[in-house]
């Protein structure tokens, strides 16, 4: 198996060039089950499960190996915008337009364990911290809230931005939170104290639609609604890589790091395809086509070379893509 | 990892009480290796472990056999085991992750102080310092206790002396006061401080005194503590002086070095003199701390996590004062808490946080007073320590700068980026084969139906209250100083899961500014003089609201 695009001189010419050692992804399966647009799809940390959240107010749990439907979670009063897995893959947390978050058990009997109330507007994004004793959520009420998993108590409220938040993520040791918002700024917060440590971007536009830390917590991947993905070394504050070619002007599309076989950046796009870039060379390695509407969310399997992608209203499916061996 | 962006200009010791924890009447506390968990022993014989990140209770260890007050708690090196000593003369060894008792033994006397061997990964060997007898090594596996020598009798020509397993009779010598003892960093030596004012270095396996260091002043040693890195030793003596010694012995293979030292001492020197000679090569006096003005006794002195600071609590009744010195000997801070005597103290291994236990059984958490760094709000601001002369470019003020000049991007976009490798943790010791128990898994406690309804009711009521937005308060205005808004300082108080409705109403009324959502303002309490900590009933809506822009 190739070790991915490495240090050898690769042809950088053209946006759709692919290096000879890159094995393309092929469509493996299409999962149907949601009645409306799917806002988020995520593999669990152990790779055994896949969860998807939708505007149809439900969340579906799929097997991460056979991709069969395991359970449909119902209970939210409005559409679900985001979901997150706990580190031990036992719990998921969903963020919904009914202003609450719900913690669900990913094991039988698949109960809703807790409802986290406190936000005053749509909850848009959610994530667990690595020890999974805290949950961070970002909302349209412009605040970040940190919740204690065990009791559901809201530990902290941070008045973070001046417009709805689009994305929140903990870093590797749970000491920092990165947040992105429609107000165009991307900020880093101290998770313990709730103080702002750094502002990465501060332009009024374009809106920051997605932000997350790299696996080692040193870099931040930021997506902005001008069809650009940037990788920033947040300690220096400089943007060291820029990935373009896709279309992202309206939706908060999630992107992911693919590290199982070669380092790629994976993102959905409003032109109905999934884009894969080479991390170092920034070239587009592949465009996965098949969805019939904008691809809103992507997730990379933690162990296998598989990608799950989900799309908007006209499509309503999840597609699984697998890399050739 | 955060070092580049956290402000390095702030001092590294706590300043104010951040909050307090409560669970029955706490008697003693101990942090685990990383400071992610805080274990505390209560007066009713149970132990509680807090998840220090969430400040919520992670586990409770309750032994039905033991109802006496806990006198000390001690973690094993990797956090898997907890040793608890209680007033009913028992020592109990717990497995932290399962919450099960591993072993229990009863001594002749109440151990004031018990420490697990820090060198072993799953220790069943511990050091116990009882109230009025020599410190002893207790081995749970074999089930035997070994008394350690506390004195080196002057008469003995030979170095070797091994008191037999005596029961209660004390050695001939001065009237007995409790001796203090501690393991060294790797756990193969025990340092004993006795009532004569001497530090004995004992090899507990052979029950042999290997060296002797007399403490100047000759007054009884009450506490003896090593710093985390094993380089410094602290003694607290009856003459109200805290002394810092530098440990000259190497970190590894200590027994051999001591043997070599013993051999290298001049021939003709024997017995006690030889021990003293060896001792002088093991420890040298570095600093002395005392309060010359009040001449107070110290309680629970210890080092900070990095060994840079020394902290001691004042043992005066009715006073909750914590003194912080830097290692060079300067008193840098005196923290004053509420008027309750201090009974235990612990410094967080990693962060500048101190935890102090008061006589009333509350655990106060002291932390730095965080103010926001204004340069955090704009991406390209850089904070300078002092004024820098600005040197302008050659053509900067030209009317018509060269158009052909392209600003060279200082960023090399082709550079390889590594998103996966993680730096080795500064706190992990070389032995990574054992996995450390850092956190106890947080299992969400399922909501009950009645709680849900009650919460909904409360929310409805709060949203109905009038929205008052006073200008200049901690509202949407860019005033981000979380200063106490006039009222008595409230700390995040008891963790009640079900707030009473009346309390929530009180909260809504008390709030200085609240939006229609009913977010209430929390004020940080400053421990200035005798400020009382008002007990605030806490509900799910008690938040920390800070405005950041």
From TrEMBL, chain A:
Alphabetically sorted, this entry's keywords are:
Repeat, WD repeat
Q: Enumerate the PROSITE patterns for this protein.
A: WD_REPEATS_1, WD_REPEATS_2, WD_REPEATS_REGION
Is Repeat included in the keywords of this UniProt record?
yes
Q: Which residues form a coiled coil?
A: none
Q: Name one GO molecular function term.
A: histone binding
Q: Which Pfam families match?
A: Beta-prop_WDR5
* WD repeat spans: 31-72, 73-105, 116-157, 158-199, 243-287
Query: An example Gene Ontology cellular component term from the record?
Result: Set1C/COMPASS complex
Superkingdom, natural source: Eukaryota
Taking every annotated instance into account, which residue ranges of this chain make up the domain WDR5-like beta-propeller?
A: 30-322
Q: Know the name of this protein?
A: COMPASS-like H3K4 histone methylase component WDR5B
Q: What is the lineage of its organism?
A: Eukaryota, Viridiplantae, Streptophyta, Embryophyta, Tracheophyta
Q: Which gene encodes it?
A: LOC108843078
Automatic annotation (TrEMBL), chain B:
- Region annotation (Disordered) ranges: 465-549
Q: Name one Pfam family in it.
A: WD40
Q: Where is the composition biased (Acidic residues)?
A: 538-549
Cross-referenced SMART domains: WD40 (SM00320)
Compartments, record wording: Nucleus
An example of a Gene Ontology cellular component annotation for this protein is: Set1C/COMPASS complex
InterPro entries on file: RBBP5/Swd1, WD40/YVTN_repeat-like_dom_sf, WD40_repeat_CS, WD40_repeat_dom_sf, WD40_rpt
Supply the alphabetized keyword list. Nucleus, Repeat, WD repeat
The highest taxon in the source lineage is Eukaryota
- Where does the record place Basic and acidic residues bias? 500-512, 520-529
Protein name (Swiss-Prot/TrEMBL): Protein RBL isoform X2
Q: What organism does the record attribute this protein to?
A: Raphanus sativus (Radish)
Q: What gene makes this protein? A: LOC108829061
